């Protein structure tokens, strides 16, 4: 009886040790995965922005108002990018656009949700967009988009808000500081970039993109 009790204690201690070891390992793996989505990516210096690949030109800015409601890239480089981001990839027709960045209380109450306790932070990868002015591929609530300022400065963001303060009839996306920092310097304020629709990621981080819908 004593031996059985001793064996039970040993097994319990061993199991506790294994669990304690496994939890940090899982958390560490998840942090490595998350870091992929919070690091700017490159399409390769030889990449050209062809509308047939889904690109549009837009402007990016540092607007601080509250919203209420053709040399192809090497195939191996693109394949590596798709593998890195696990399902998150640019698709569809491209546009030119303006991008800016916003912060502070402007991050509160993202209008894509009718009622949510979540709101982005400066470290999130989300954006607000104009309601009018898009002729094709208008970003809609909860869509992901890929933004590039040249082929070497690219990032992904999720649409979670509308930009009532942006100029009507323009291709305009207002980004969080983290997303904007992948495209240019904050002092630049306004950037003209390329944007295209993107697929949804295989992994999910609510602090980066908000709740799933």
Total helix count? 4
Name the helix and strand elements from N-terminus to C-terminus, one letter apiece: HEHEEEEEHEH
CATH fold node name: Barwin-like endoglucanases
Number of domains: 1
Gross geometry: globular
CATH second-level architecture: Beta Barrel
Average pLDDT, all residues = 78
Computed CA radius of gyration, to the nearest angstrom? 21 Å
Q: Flag low-confidence runs.
A: 63-84
Counting helices, strands and paired strands, the structural category is alpha/beta
Q: Count all strands and give the number.
A: 7
**Share in β-strands:** 15-25%
End-to-end gap? 55 Å
Described by strand count, sense and barrel closure, the largest sheet is: 7 strands, mixed
CATH top level assignment: Mainly Beta
CATH superfamily: RlpA-like domain
Indicate the percent of residues in helices: 25-40%
Comma- or semicolon-separated keywords:
213 residues, alpha/beta, Barwin-like endoglucanases, seven-stranded mixed beta sheet, 4 helices, 7 strands, 26% helix, globular
Would you kindly provide a written description of the structure presented here, covering whatever features stand out?
This protein has 213 residues and is α/β, with parallel strands linked by helices. It has a single domain (38-209), classed as Barwin-like endoglucanases. The protein is 26% helix and 21% strand. The chain is built from 4 helices and 7 strands. The protein has helices at 2-37, 75-85, 177-181, 206-209; strands at residues 56-61, 95-102, 126-129, 144-148, 154-162, 172-176, 191-198. Strands 1, 2, 3, 4, 5, 6 and 7 form a 7-stranded mixed sheet that branches. A hairpin with a 5-residue loop joins β4 and β5 (154-162). The radius of gyration is 21 Å and the shape is globular. The N and C termini lie far apart (55 Å). Mean pLDDT is 78; it is low at 63-84. It comes from Mycena indigotica. This is DPBB-1 domain-containing protein. Residues 1-20 form the signal peptide.
């Amino acid at each position: 009886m004593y031996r059985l009790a001793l064996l039970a204690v040993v097994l319990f201690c061993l199991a506790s040790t294994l669990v304690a070891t496994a939890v940090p390992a899982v958390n560490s793996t998840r942090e490595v995965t998350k870091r992929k989505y919070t690091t700017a990516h490159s399409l390769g210096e030889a990449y050209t922005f062809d509308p047939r690949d889904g690109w549009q030109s837009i402007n990016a800015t540092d607007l601080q108002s509250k919203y209420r409601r053709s040399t192809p890239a090497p195939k191996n480089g693109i394949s590596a990018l798709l593998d890195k981001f696990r399902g998150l990839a640019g698709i569809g027709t491209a546009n030119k656009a303006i991008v800016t960045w916003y912060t502070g209380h402007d991050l509160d109450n993202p209008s894509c949700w009718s009622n949510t306790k979540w709101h982005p932070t400066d470290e999130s990868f989300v954006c607000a967009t104009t309601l009018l002015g898009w002729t094709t591929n208008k970003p809609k609530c909860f869509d992901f988009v890929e933004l590039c300022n040249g082929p070497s400065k690219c990032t992904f963001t999720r649409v979670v808000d509308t930009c009532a303060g942006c100029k009507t009839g323009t291709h305009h996306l207002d980004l969080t500081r983290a997303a904007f920092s992948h495209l240019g310097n904050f002092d630049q304020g306004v950037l003209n970039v390329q944007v295209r629709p993107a697929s949804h990621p295989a992994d999910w981080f609510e602090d980066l993109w908000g709740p799933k819908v």
